[in-house]
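Subject: DUF8040 domain-containing protein

B.,
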Amino acid sequence: MFMHILAHNLKYRVFHFSYCRSKETISRQFNNVLQAIMKVSKEYLKFHDYNLEGLEANKWR
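Prediction pasted inline below.
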């Protein structure tokens, strides 16, 4: 459910009609998985620092 919502940029309301689950259940389970991913993100995800120079730096301020 989590990956399906992220991959297709779905609203809970759309998912609610497709899978016959309450919006409260979808919201609760989505947030549970999101919290679990955030807890382990530092162990499994590597974040890079980007240094932009010149015109690119002004573009992304």
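The chain has one domain: 2-51.

T.
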